[in-house]
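Notebook, bench 3.
Goal today: get a predicted structure for GCN5-related N-acetyltransferase protein from Rhizobium gallicum bv. gallicum R602sp so we can plan the truncation constructs. The sequence was checked against the plasmid map this morning, with no discrepancies at the termini. Length recorded as 260 residues. Pasting the sequence as submitted so the record is complete.
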Amino acid sequence: MTETFSQKANLPLVRRLEAVGFRAWPASSVQYDGSWQVRLTAGHPSNRLNSIVPLDPSDHRDVEVRLEKASRKFEAYGRPAVLRHTPLASPVLIDLVKERQWTHFDETIVMTCDLAHAELPDTLDHLPTHDIGRFVDANLATDQVSPKLKPALAEIINAIGPPCGLFMIEDPETGPLATVLCVQDNDLAGIMSLSVAKKRRREGLGLEILTSALRWARMRSARSAWLQVKAVNVPALALYGRLGFREAYRYSYWRREQAQ
C-alpha cells in the first residue's frame, strides 16, 4: 500500500488538506528544513503533533544528513524520530527509512465529503459550547485517556486559529457520552476528536453529534468536510461512508526505534 500512495493521489488536494490539518491541530513547535516540517509538542504524544512532515515529493537533497538532523530534534525531547508518510513524501526518503529498518505503523485514511450537497440525517441537534475546559474533560473521559493530558489538549485547542465548534452530548447522571471538534477553515470543515463513550457505542450518538457539527459548519458556509480515520476502524468508516465521506488519500508513519 505504501508504495502506491503518490501514484493514486491528487497532490494539490493533498497539499491543501495537509495544510488545513496542521492549522486544525497545531504543534507547539514547527521548524522547516527545505519543504520538510519538523513538528514537536512536548506535552502531547500525538504523532500528528510530533513528526517529520515532507511536503514535496521532489525534495530529497542531502536526505541522509537532513533526516539525521531532524531525528536529533526528537532525541532532545526524549522521543524516537517519527516520519509522516503521505503522497508528498519523496520515494528516496521512504527508501532510506526502509533501508534503515524504521518501523512502519498507523495507516490512516483522509476522507472528504461534499458538504454543500450532503443529505444529513434528521437527528437531534446540539449547539457548540465555548467552555474549552469542560470539552477537554469530556473528550478525555469518552476516549478513556489520562486526565494528565488535559493541559496539553487545552493548549492545542486554544491555539487553533480558524473558528471551531466544540460539541458534546452529556448525561446528567453518568457524564459525557460523545464529543467532536469541528474546525472551519474558509470553505473546509475539519472533523477532529470524535469520541463516543465505550458503553454507549452503537446507539447512534456518533451520528447524532457528527451531524450537528456538519450542520453547524454548513450554516457557516463550509462547502466540504474532511476527517482522518485509522484504516482499521471499520465502524467509523461505515459511519462516515453513510454521510457521504470518500477516501482522498492515505498516510502512515515510520518510527526510528531507539537503541536499548
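The beta strands are 29-33, 36-40, 51-54, 82-85, 103-114, 164-171, 175-185, 188-196, 224-230, 246-255. The chain has eight helices and ten strands.
Flagging this for group meeting.
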